[in-house]
Amino acid sequence: MSSQQAPRGPLSGVRxxxxxxVMFGPYCTQIMGEMGADIVKVEGPEGDISRQVGPSRxxxxxxxxxxKGRNKRSVVLDLKQEAAREALYKLCETADVFIHNxxxxxxxxxxxxxxxIEKARPDIVYCNAIGFGPEGPYADKPAYDDLIQGLSxxxxxxxxxxxxxxxxxxxxxxxxxxxxxxxxxxxxxxHRERTGEGQRIDVPMFESFASFVINEHMQERFFEPPxxxxxxxRLLSPxxxxxxxxxxxxxxxxxxxxHWVAFFNLAGRPDLAEDERFQTMPGRTQNIGELxxxxxxxxxxxxxxxxxxxxxxxxxxxxPMNTPEDLFTDPHLxxxxxxxxxxxxxxxxxxxxxxxxxxxKTPGGLTRHAPRLGEHSLELLREAGLTEDEINSLMEARATxxxxx
Length: 405
Fold this sequence. Notes:
This protein is of the alpha/beta class. It has helices at about 25-35, 65-70, 80-95, 105-110, 115-120, 145-150, 155-160, 170-195, 205-215, 255-265, 270-275, 280-285, 290-300, 305-315, 330-335, 375-385, 390-395; strands at about 15-20, 40-45, 70-75, 95-100, 125-130, 200-205, 245, 250, 320, 340-345, 350. The strands form three sheets. The protein has a six-stranded parallel β-sheet, with helices on both faces. Helix 2 links the parallel strand 2 (about 40-45) and strand 3 (about 70-75). Helix 1 packs across helix 8 and helix 8 crosses helix 9 (about 205-215). The protein is elongated. The protein starts with 14 loop residues before the first strand and ends in a 9-residue tail after the last helix. The mean pLDDT is about 95.
């Protein structure tokens, strides 16, 4: 798919130099690429480690990379070599955004600290996608999704419900932090559009995800002195889960008093609608454990299909419980074309994830497939103004490489 065939996204004309790996940074730049930005993915000679994670048809082209690498161009630069660093600075002269996810000391050693990149492009929006804020004692510690889920309290919250701390079966800390980086960069670009000023932006995973997790769990700790311990009682009820029906599971969430009265009547339990513990929001919150226990006891009395039909007719919020595999046949996701098929030039037929948001004027979308390692090295170095002799010298020194045709 060529860029000429695809609709222009709202970030068309923005060039991003992307030195990120794994998920945090690549998720951010994946979305920027879908929205029209020109993502220049700078990879070391060994490539992004995500190229090796999960199933693949060819080495270095895993499903994980094919998803996160779409709408990006790959250039190989061995930044341990001075000539490669100089080539990177030339690329930065053409860029609007620079993002990396190295620890601060490692970035400084490689010559990609903000002060280094700012010399090449004074108005650049520079993003440190880092594990921990540079002012704290964890600044130079490594950070991965599991570590941040544990540090942020998320794993412990699961344990408070189930009796055993567990990580969420999704890299939620990485992806959430990627969204923090995305909005921060876009705000930096907005500021630059108004003032002409670039700036350094630090997006630390720990602080970002901790703020995300603690938001609804502040509760009693919002007040000083605290009225109690952190934790939102409704979310910590062991009965807050998909409810077992006669033949499966259903997700249901009566929320307002109207919802609860309708549900109790449908369930043949008008006595619960009259129970003063459950007649108001404060009362339901205070007695949420007992309320959800009643739900757990009531729901097995009917089949999933029966409940869904009955609850929908009464406008009580409910939905079936999908497995990840069910998403590919969900009627709504099918109707909106959530997982379109396309043909990758080297990997054959692949299934993508549709951009979930829509823009009436600048919709964005898939403009190019995930690249092979160094697929665009020569193209990008020429765009940066390097001569053929300079490029040949980089090739001979193995400071860059080009994917075979």
